[in-house]
Amino acid sequence: MSACSASHSLFSGTIYMEFTAKQIAQLIGGRVEGNENAAVCTFAKIEEGQEGAISFLSNPKYTHYLYDTKSTIVLVNEDLLLEHAVSATLIRVPNAYEAVAKLLQIYEQMKPRKTGIDPLAFVSSKATIGKDVFIGAFACIGDGAVIGDGSQIFPHAVIGDGAMLGAGCIVYPNVTIYQGCRLGNKVTVHAGSVIGADGFGFAPNPEGYDKIPQIGIVVIEDNVEIGANTCIDRSTMGQTVIHKGVKLDNLIQVAHNCEIGENTVMSAQVGIAGSTKVGSWCMFGGQVGIAGHISIGDHVNLGAQSGVPSSIKANQTLIGTPPMEPTPYFKSQAIFRRLPDMYKELNSLRKELEELKLKINN
User: Does an H or E element contain 339, and which?
Assistant: First the structure.
C-alpha cells in the first residue's frame, strides 16, 4: 500500500498526484540510485523526513541526516560520496538545490488556479479585464484599469484608476496599486505591499512644509517579485522603475525616482533613498541603507546593515558603514573590540612620556 494519501499530497484538494523516482529523474535530468519505482507525493526537509516524501541535500552540514532520514527519495549532488548505505532512494543531479527549485516550480504550475470574479468584488465598468482572470471578494478595480490574461487579484486588493497589469500577475490580499502605475507580465506582489504611494517630497517654509505633488508613476517590468509590506513610491515626475527579474524581500522601501537594475535582489528592510540608481545583478543583505542621488554599479554585493553614503563602482563586494572590502572590515571590527584597552594603554603611555619629559628637563 502506498504511503501517500490525499491528506498528505503534493497537490492537496482537488488534485492528487504521485511521482516515482524514475519520473522525477526524467523531469530534472537526474540519475536514480536505488528503487526507481519508489513513489512520493509530498516534500519534506531532510531532517524531518517521512515516508512518501522527497527531500534534498545540498548543504554539507546536513549530510548526517541522509543516513537516518525517513524520506523515500532524496535529491543529492552528483559528486556526493557515501560513508555507508542509505535506505532512501537517491536521485543524483549536478546541483540538488537547483533541482528541488525546479520541482517546486513544477508543483506550483500544477496547482489549480482560480478564475472568475467574485460577486462581492467591485470592478468598474470602465476597466478592461482579460481572459481567465480571478478577482476575489472585496477587491476593487478602478476606472480605466487593465488586468491582463490569467492574472489573479486576491481579496481586498485595490487596483487604482488607470493602473495596468500584464498577463499572469498575482496580487495578494490587501495590496494597493495606486493610479496610473504599470506592471508587466508575471509580476507577483505579496500581501500588504503598496505600489505608487506618494514620494516623500516636502519643501520647508517659515511655517512648516509645503507638500510637493508627486505626479509620476511606478513602472515594474516582467518577472518581478515583491515581498509582503514592501513600498515602492511613485516619482515626483517621470517614473520609479523596477526592471525585469528583480526580487525584493519583505519590508523594503524604494523611494521616488529610483531605478533598480535587472535581476537585482534585496533582503528584508533594505531602504533606498530618492533618485538613486542601482545596477543589474546586485545583491543587498538585510537592513542595507542607501543614500539618495547616488549610483550603485552592476554586480555590487553589500553585506547586511551596510550604510552607503556615496556612489559605488561595479563588481565589488563590500560591508560596513561606509562600505569596505570584507577582510579589512573584519580586521577593523577585531581592533574596534580592543579599543577600550588600547585607550587605557595610550593614556598610560602619555603619563609615562610626560614623566620622562619632566626628568629630562630637570
Answer: helix 339-361
Strands 39-40 and 19-20: antiparallel
Tally Cβ neighbours within 10 Å of residue 124. Answer: 15
Cis peptide preceding 322, ω within 30 of 0: yes
Give mean pLDDT, residues 259-275: 98
Q: What is the pLDDT of residues 331-349, one digit of tens each?
A: 998 898 999 999 999 999 9
The CB density around residue 355, as the number of other CB atoms within 10 Å, is 10
- Region 243-253: what's the mean pLDDT? 98
Which residue in this structure is represented by grid cell 501517500? Answer: 4
Report the distance separating Cα 326 and Cα 151, nearest Å.
43
Cell numbers at 305, concatenated = 546593515
Q: Which three cell numbers stand for residue 21?
A: 523516482
Q: What own/partner pairs with CB < 8 Å and gap ≥ 24 does 157-162 have?
A: 159/127, 160/196, 161/124
CA dist 29 and 124 (Å) reads 48
Rounded alpha-carbon distances, angstroms, from residue 149 to 31, 123, 190, 335? 38, 16, 19, 58
Residue identified by cell 504599470 is 182
CA 55, 104, 243 angle in degrees (round to 5)? 135
**Residues with Cβ within 8 Å of residue 283, at least 6 apart in sequence:** 264, 265, 266, 300, 301, 302
Question: Residues with catalytic annotation?
Answer: 256
Rounded to two decimals, what is the model's pTM?
Answer: 0.86
Integer angstrom CA distances of residue 280 from 47, 51, 140, 173: 36, 43, 34, 30
Half-sphere exposure (CA, 13 Å, Cβ side) for 56?
A: 21
Q: What is the pLDDT of residues 41-78, one digit of tens each?
A: 999 999 999 999 999 999 999 999 999 999 999 999 99
pLDDT band at residue 2 under the 50/70/90 scheme: low
Mean pLDDT, the chain, integer: 93
State the pLDDT at residue 16: 53
Residue 303 near residue 320, CB atoms below 8 Å: yes
